[in-house]
């Protein structure tokens, strides 16, 4: 199973203190985008220190205009408030959705918790309809737990 093979690679990237946090986050995006065929845009958003906004961090995939997303807006903004995973099998069925690319069919967003606080999220867009399962959620929760270890 690809997820089990990727887990030790995630741990190796995260624990490499020779590299900056952003370099390590970027490598995680690359690893996921390269190895999971239906992960077509992989990126991190982080909550602003004082404003109710998400700010785009490292990502791999098509450039996006949505570098700042207000809490509540789009799938990402909703996760900033709900603190729960959001799996979207069909983005066309969502009213509160921010389109980044017309090729995107589905999306999954999983929050990152540090000391119990929702500090950001990993966001995956897929060009395949309805591709995500509970296995993606569990794997991405693992990724978020790992990443939280190197975030302040
Ligand atoms: N689709 C997201 C916006 C971010 S892009 O996918 C990169 C949303 O609705 O929040």
Task: Explain what the structure shows.
It is a single chain. The model has no long low-confidence stretch (mean pLDDT 98). A hairpin with a 2-residue loop joins strand 5 and strand 6 (117-126). This protein has four helices and six strands; from the N terminus they run ααβββαβββα. With 152 residues, the chain is an alpha+beta fold. The relative contact order is 0.18. It has a single domain, classed as 2-Layer Sandwich (Beta-Lactamase), CATH 3.30.450. The chain has a six-stranded antiparallel sheet with strand order 3-2-1-6-5-4, sandwiched between helices. The structure holds methionine sulfoxide.
Summarize the structure.
The protein has four helices and six strands; from the N terminus they run ααβββαβββα. The protein has 152 residues and is an alpha+beta fold. A hairpin with a 2-residue loop joins strand 5 (106-114) and strand 6 (117-126).
């Amino acid at each position: 199973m690809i997820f089990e093979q990727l887990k030790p690679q995630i741990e190796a990237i995260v624990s490499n203190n020779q590299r900056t946090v952003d370099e390590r986050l970027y490598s995680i995006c690359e690893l996921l985008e390269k190895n999971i065929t239906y992960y077509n845009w992989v990126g991190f958003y982080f909550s602003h220190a004082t404003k109710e906004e998400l700010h785009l961090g490292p990502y791999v995939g098509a450039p996006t205009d949505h570098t700042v997303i207000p809490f509540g807006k789009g799938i990402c903004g909703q996760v900033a408030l709900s603190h729960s995973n959001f799996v979207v099998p069909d983005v066309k069925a969502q009213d509160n959705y921010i389109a980044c690319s017309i090729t995107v069919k589905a999306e999954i967003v999983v929050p990152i918790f540090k000391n119990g606080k929702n500090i950001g999220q990993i966001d995956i867009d897929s060009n395949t309809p309805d591709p995500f399962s509970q296995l993606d959620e569990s794997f991405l929760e693992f990724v978020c737990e790992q990443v939280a270890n190197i975030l302040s």
